[in-house]
Amino acid sequence: MVVIVGGGITGLSAAWFLHQKGVRVRLLEAAPRLGGVIDSARDNEGFLVERGPNSTLQKPGTADDALGRLVAGAGLEDRLVEAGQAGRKRYVLRGGRLQALPGGPPGFLTTKLFSWRAKARLLREPFIGRAAEEESIALFVERRLGREFLDYAVEPFISGVYAGDPAALSVRAAVPRIYELERAHGSLIRGAIALGKAAKGAGTPAGRMVSFDRGMGVLPEGVGAALPEGAWRSGCRAVALRPFGFKGWEVAWEGPGESGVERARTVILALPAGAAADLVGPQSKAAAQILRSIAYASIASLAFGYDRDQVGHPLDGFGFLAPRREGLRVLGGLFSSTLFAGRAPDGRVLITAFIGGTTDPAAAALDDEELAGCVRDDLARALDIRGQPAFQRITRYAAAIPQYTLGHLDRLAELDRALEPLTGLHLQASWRGGVSVADCIRNAEALAHRIADAPVGVAA
Ligand SMILES: Cc1cc2nc3c(=O)[nH]c(=O)nc-3n(C[C@H](O)[C@H](O)[C@H](O)COP(=O)(O)OP(=O)(O)OC[C@H]3O[C@@H](n4cnc5c(N)ncnc54)[C@H](O)[C@@H]3O)c2cc1C
């Protein structure tokens, strides 16, 4: 039996893949529902609001597609929906106007998003050497591609994924695939061409943005329903972790009006870093200290419903990103009702915007009215919106997304050393190995297989 603490997508995926390997699991979730930050609110005057993730990137037909394996295993294939062609078009604000990100070389030559100087600067990229030290994303991109690419492509993209600051995030930890292109091919451009050719040769389909018919929440709900009776329990907060007997662990939990313990040889803490630190602290001060040093970005997600004819922009894409240089406070907006059907009533549109992050921590202190007013004004400028929304909903996260800052991988290696004596205890969540939903599932699957496949007698 394996005890899993945390019923976000990491803990649930670990539970599912262990169960598939014939391992009995018991998952404890503090909140009244499963899913963690995945939270689809469906009862909003006909709008389906994603309070957390709106979609995730699936790579069907690849070894990385743990999401596909989870969806198939839990019987959710019929409920998976793809963003379709419109989802491929992404806008970036430049000079107050939305410019579509070029989809390929011809579009790149004609786009107004980058100047001719910036385009010509790219010709130098294949001849630029590697840096000796670990670099921030900002340094790496400016060195290889130039300042304009940092400001108008990479920085807004990093805001979109991490709500983070490219000058603080480590290129090796936060965007390992980009780092790997340089390492393996000596150039991002040469690497991208080689990867494109290899994918074409192997017939690997391109990645696709996916969600579910009734929102991302279908995934944790469906996985929870597919697990055997008694495999999980919500409303049940783990409050202590202590050794039990010979090589065992005991997790004490509390729920409304009751409490109890779960015992097992193997325990997975699938928790945000701070919550994991609270449980691990009495066993390893060093591990807790490292976990507490992992910074998180605070963020607010605001969903707005407008009548279609209030919005001048065609909303024909995934959404837009607002580079910090453009002077808006909003980080960007998703065209939620364009991406997936059933997100807004007929004749209306749903836009989901984000504000805050590590470059604007003060946004968290704004009251609801100020926050919504500020985002509405920014959206009105970017998307040519007239009048007030018919509907709005605000969700705040004090600690939304872990920041893979410079030194992150060294700190995780140190954490592993500190945890080594605590046999049978595993820590995995979005602060390690990627923050996306698909990454969390992939990392949880790998951990589940390591545990289930460990030789008998070895507490993996
Ligand atoms: C606003 C927002 C937008 C995002 N957008 C996207 C997106 O569009 N696409 C994408 O791929 N990713 C997105 N992400 C990232 C992705 O959703 C998360 O990284 C991922 O869902 C985290 O899953 P997790 O299981 O690691 O952590 P969590 O979801 O945080 O789950 C941890 C769980 O542990 C529980 N818990 C905490 N303490 C205890 C305790 N003591 N006992 C028991 N349970 C406890 C919590 O209640 C929670 O349910 C977004 C994240 C946020 C916050």
Keyword list:
about 450 residues; alpha/beta; FAD/NAD(P)-binding domain; protoporphyrinogen ix oxidase, domain 3; seven-stranded mixed β-sheet; about 35% helix; binds flavin-adenine dinucleotide
Please tell me the overall pLDDT: 94
Please count the beta strands (DSSP E, at least 2 residues each). Answer: 20
CATH-defined fold name of the domain at 2-36 and 216-294 and 405-453: FAD/NAD(P)-binding domain
Helical stretch tally: 16
- Percent in strands: 15-25%
Helix percent reads 25-40%
What distance lies between the first and last C-alpha atoms, to the nearest angstrom? 12 Å
Tell me which CATH architecture of the domain at 2-36 and 216-294 and 405-453 applies here. 3-Layer(bba) Sandwich
Round the Cα radius of gyration to an integer and report it.
Answer: 23 Å
Name the bound molecules: flavin-adenine dinucleotide
Which segments are poorly predicted (pLDDT under 50) over 5 or more consecutive residues? none
What can be said about the biggest beta sheet? 7 strands, mixed
Question: Which superfamily, in CATH terms, is the homologous superfamily of the domain at 2-36 and 216-294 and 405-453?
Answer: FAD/NAD(P)-binding domain
Structure classification: alpha/beta
Order of strands, main sheet, comes to 8-7-16-17-18-15-19
What sort of overall outline do the alpha carbons produce when their principal axes are compared? globular
